Amino acid sequence: QAKAAGRHALCFFDPAMQARVMERASLEADLRQALADGLLRLFYQVQVDGEGQITGVEALLRWEHPERGLVSPGVFIPVAEENGLIVPMGFWVLETACRQLAKWAATPATEHLTMAVNVSRDQFRAPDFVDRLERILAATGARPERLKLELTETLFLEDSEDTRYKMQRLKSLGIGFALDDFGTGYSSLAYLKRLPLDQLKIDQSFVRDLLDDPTDATIVTTIITLARSLELEVIAEGVESEAHRHWLAAQGCRAFQGYLFGRPVSVEELSLTAHPRPVAGLEAPR
Ligand code: C2E
Ligand code: MG
Ligand code: MG
Ligand code: MG
């Protein structure tokens, strides 16, 4: 009977689990090939200031899979982090982003733009991370002052002396640091004091419901206040509506990223000349 077979299957052979294992294995093999074959793409999402002017972009990785289409980093970054591919992949991202940054720097209209790049814990932990980034900067001609590395709290959980040392070396070159997904990790706030951070990024999970959920609203307000008292910049991610933007601006947030301003797109589709859109009711005095 089906039930008996089902029970048997559960004990000795779980087809669903095997499918997942095979899916994983094929994803892993495909990913290795994708890096070699140049099927990874960088998309860019704009970041804007309080006046709605574009100040820079965040580089976001995409994988152009021959059969699956565009694969989201939410699917393949965890795989790459587990099998170590994240290290070579991350350097490909840094090099591609720096090459783009140098291109923008050569044109007056885009000269001011900053580039935020996500760096995984294991990539930052690579012993030669600083040297390799220095070589990428030299080779591409990108200005370190325009580059911002987005790190997450997982990096600060252990071995923080090495992290601090590397951050200080990079900082002395002019590179900035944003703390991504702030508030979602196991944060001890002590590292905010010890590490040379420039910016806190309010995670979109807090931004999404802040208009309806008083707890999220309180968390966001607290992060903005914390950033101000520590003299850090603060940027809200996942800003999807004018109402969100207005609320955040009223709390003192002056930097935004989200679908309201633009989705992540290829460099060809990227519009860096969007008209500034001041927050209604909060226009700068003339
Ligand atoms: P993240 O760094 O927190 O990036 C923000 C994510 O939020 C992006 O997802 C972006 O597309 C999405 N997003 C932006 N605005 C909105 C919005 O208004 N609404 C909603 N619902 N989502 C919005 P994406 O591109 O799928 O990337 C997911 C994560 O993958 C990133 O989160 C980052 O942790 C990781 N990732 C992406 N590219 C790289 C990379 O080059 N290196 C590493 N190490 N990680 C990367
Ligand atoms: Mg990020
Ligand atoms: Mg984030
Ligand atoms: Mg995130």
Automatic annotation (TrEMBL):
<feature type="domain" description="EAL">
    <location>
        <begin position="24"/>
        <end position="278"/>
    </location>
</feature>
<protein>
    <submittedName>
        <fullName>EAL domain-containing protein</fullName>
    </submittedName>
</protein>
